[in-house]
Amino acid sequence: MATKPTHLGHLSAVSCSTVVACTFNTSNIATGDETTSDDAAPPLELVDSGAQLPDASSPQDCPNDIRFEITVDGVSAPLGTGQPYVHTLVGDSVELSAVGSCTQSGQMDYRWTIEPSTAKIEQTARPKDLASETISVYSLIPEQYTVKLEIDDGIGPQEVSVFGFEAHGFQEVDNYDGDRVRDIRVGYDYIWLGAEDRAYRGTLDAPLGTYKRVTALYGGSSLPNKVRVHEVDAGGEVWFGPTDPDGEAYRLDLVAGEIASFNTISNARAKDITDGAARVRFATDKGVALTADSEIFTTERTDHSDALSDGATGVWAGRDRLYPLPTGADIDLFPRPGGERIQSLDDDGVLLWIGTDGDGVATFENGSIQLYDEDNGNLADDDVECLAIDADGDVRVATATGVGRFKSDRQICVPMTDDSGLDSALDLDAIAADDTNGRRAIYVGGRDGLFVMRTP
């Protein structure tokens, strides 16, 4: 009886916060055609390799019936429903693997085609002990991508449409009708916005949320109109700071539903807020104010500070220099004349990340600094207003002309500008990641309102 090669593949899509597994099983599946359109867009790249099966010294008898069964997260995709898609965000890495199950010749070649061409193949790997191949790709713009695989043992090549993934970009949040967004935080299943006109609370469960003024929800007429920054801490409190120089901190108690105000530093403008180790700190133009009981503030440092971070690398404040807290010698990161100002700080557990107003992004570790800018780091812009680190360690930066994503799984930055869904809304001030309750979303805000990148 004439036989054909049977091929068994395994495919997994690895995104920033989830692992989506797709298995292709050729056994016990009815025969069917898996063809591709002749009108498909030109492929990005073909990856060719030949792999010798470990135990393929003699031809094997392979069954005739060949068809791919596809499962996503362990659930089979019903036959006849069309191309299955896994949902990712722009810049997510997708790992595609295949392994040959048997061969007539002892040889197995894998040939990948990715359409359209707005994706990047970063690496190809073939374990020595398996007749298999793995490629890793990532998307550059919002798009539906189709990956096709041709497996050839030199006797009967077969081309099949293997997998599709959709990369989602930014979209405007139409339900938000406030002024320029200055700060974004996610906590207690809400998104909190500090805007030019008011503070807002938005829901995360609706497709694009519902946004209402904090004062309308909780009262507290003393909460100022212009709220620059805020923080959501682990105790069910939301802290707000005004851009006007009234020197006060405003605390929303989510349990009691009440807003109270406290003195920080007289006549100071709030610039940033952070909480850690049961302490809340305010960075202001008159120094850093600290409270351990959410009631009484003391002045910890008198230097003008625009940014704060409290994490594994320590407690830091920054503006012209980096200031260790509560004490320590200042660190001049930009000693040249006209050195840039620190605008944002964040901690990934190993590195302190620093956003500047003209030098791009810097990382600081054990006294060493590394700079990433438009030239060597592929940043959208060197004016970095804000940083956010997601659950998998990817660092997102909001800049004057778009978003940058430093990928933790490869030392690159993926820029996201108008073709990522931001259109002309590129003057950004704030960014935040939502990795809670199974969600994956990136929020950015600025001059033109609020935008979100999320999976369905």
Looking at the overall shape, the CATH architecture of the largest domain is 7 Propeller
Based on CA atoms alone, the radius of gyration comes out at 26 Å
Structural class: mainly beta
CATH homologous superfamily name of the largest domain? YVTN repeat-like/Quinoprotein amine dehydrogenase
What do the pLDDT scores average to? 74
Number of domains in the coordinates? 2
Query: How many individual β-strands?
Result: 39
CATH topology of the largest domain: Methylamine Dehydrogenase, Chain H
> Are there runs of 5+ residues with pLDDT below 50, and where?
1-82
How much β-strand is present in the residues?
A: over 45%
Tell me about the biggest sheet?
7 strands, antiparallel
Question: What global shape is seen?
Answer: globular
Number of helices: 1
* CATH class bucket of the largest domain: Mainly Beta
Distance between the termini: 48 Å
Strand adjacency order, main sheet: 5-4-2-1-7-10-9
- The helix fraction, in percent, is under 10%
